[in-house]
């Protein structure tokens, strides 16, 4: 009995022990699987975050004036301009505050002219436009005729003194001083004007070695239907010497200044090769062209009206503040202006010094708009591109 009992106990209990062992093993396996999955999830999230940071949020360290030196780009110096312009409050076309903003930009441009390299010819002009009408075939203002008159733009042109023919080959860098009536426009586009003034300060020390000239256009009237750019490109006496257009914009505030519209492989290649922190996303152009952002940029004028090749850059962080009272300096991430400024300075120095770049620009003027369209994007700050078939 005891044996039998023993045997009966063993025959009945063993399965329970086995079941318990099996169940423990299962639990252990499930626990290990759960840990593995959790681990993989953490690795995935960490990887995604790192890629996101590298792709969108990785900004350079801002430099002060001393660190940047005479020929470099300083975010601290550019920010002083942004601070002054934003401090004026909203400055739409027709307002007294816009007059003050234009006077400020002109006065700063005068300082740049005075401090320029002695072998650089600097022309500074306050351009009053005549009456004009802008009628575009596409985009946000398609089919509308927008009349304008008496706009004021600040124009600053750099040409090497001992190469007068450079006057006939100008690279245009353009942005707008005016804002919409709701905001002082820290992002849109005081940040662009600040970058352009600081860029011009640097270009003034380099331009004696250029083969082409560089013309900075600080326009007013962009927010009224792109009429600032239109008035320049249809009325100004230097308009026919412009061979290439660079437009700086904001569809939000700060972050990377991203190339989102552009023409021609050689132009994209030039930017991708020399920019210190290249950033480009064609997808933004598609969103932009779909009308979802309800915006347009001066680049459309340079492409559609003037037939120029060019590149269009925009800040696209915090798009929710675009054209609202929250477009404020406090949202401007450190490094944003440094990112834009260093990229642009490197690009301008390259483009204005390259004979080939200007020859390509001349040739491009003859092509149709469809031939000029290109597809491009960057992956982790390196640019790949391809050309869309016409
Ligand atoms: Zn703008």
TrEMBL record:
One of its GO terms (molecular function) is metalloexopeptidase activity. Residues 11-24 have a biased composition (Basic and acidic residues). Its cofactor is Zn(2+). GO terms for cellular component: endoplasmic reticulum membrane. Gene3D superfamilies: Zn peptidases. It is found in: Endoplasmic reticulum membrane. Residues 161-347 form the Peptidase M28 domain. PANTHER family: METALLOPEPTIDASE M28 FAMILY MEMBER, PEPTIDASE M28 DOMAIN-CONTAINING PROTEIN. This is Peptidase M28 domain-containing protein.
